[in-house]
What does this fold into?
Amino acid sequence: MEYFLTEEQIMLRDLARQIAVERMLPVRAELDEKEEFAHEVMKDLAEADLFGVVIPEEYGGLGFGALENCLVVEELSRVCCGITTAYAASGLGSYPVLLFGTEEQKKKYLPLIASGEQLAAFALTESTAGSDAAGIQTTAVRDGDHYVLNGTKQWITNAKEAGIYSVIAMTDRKKGARGATAFIVEKGDPGFSFGKKETKMGIRASTTGELIFQDCRIPADRVLAREGMGFIVVMKTFDKSRPGVGAQAVGLAQGALDEAVTFARTRVQFDKAIINFQAVQHMLADMATQVEAARALVYAVARHIDSGAKEVSKVAAMAKYFPSDVAMKVTTDAVQILGGHGYMREYPVEKMMRDAKILQIYEGTNQIQRNIVGQELHKEYGRRK
It folds into this structure.
């Protein structure tokens, strides 16, 4: 469909597609099998300036918005959602600095991220704090001109690979959610180390691991916004990043649809290609319609965010949960269309189905996204009375 993209947007999308096909496609299966981080692909993305898509030009970025980010993420995910997760997670880690950083913080960290010299990561989740972010146990105590952090973060994308971390810790537990604060932590800070690397069902070409803080001392000027604004930083960050997860889902689903149609046109049963059977045609038709509907939603929400709209939590949640549900269904149906072939690692839809599951979980489970939409609807209709 025609989405009325500008010439710049088309060039950016095509650049991402070229890197995906030429650099990601040849290595995706091997990196998934070996669970290895895609260092060389990250270099390719850095050389193409793609780490700076949403970072303003004054900090070394390209100065684009949510839609352009979604276009890039979609094209990369069409080939490998795992490698793309590492790329997208750096953007997630940069948003707190971009949205809440002081001018000094932005000048110090954003050029490093935009150039790809340093990856970023976002550290909220703990063993006791997932959907219930208020369950955070990591603490930060002021000590003169420093804060001292103690605790462990779990399931952090780009753990150990990133050089810059946006970390949420409790500075005043008595205040509940208002007692959380966001910090910038650098790899190499004293008392900051890494725990185990996780072995995962999918997105194996991205690194997921623990961050350990043991009397980790960081300068007080690494606070983002101010004390007590940690959860506002988190929520505003997710408002920006969740359409990007939707774009991952759209790209992944499109890739699975591509594989299913190609296979159905060449797989012969009962003396004809299986795409000639109505049962298969109907499956493919539903898959294609669902992908297009998800893409339209993601692009519309991204444009809404780029327009400067202030209240975007509801639509950002929609743009995360609907496409990721679509990706799970479409990849499952792609495996079904390929039959026994689809279940084998030789064919990419097996990996795509494994990769799809995490999209329904990270950056807020799809159940939490539905809660957000429902709560916002309750508020909106309440204001109409």
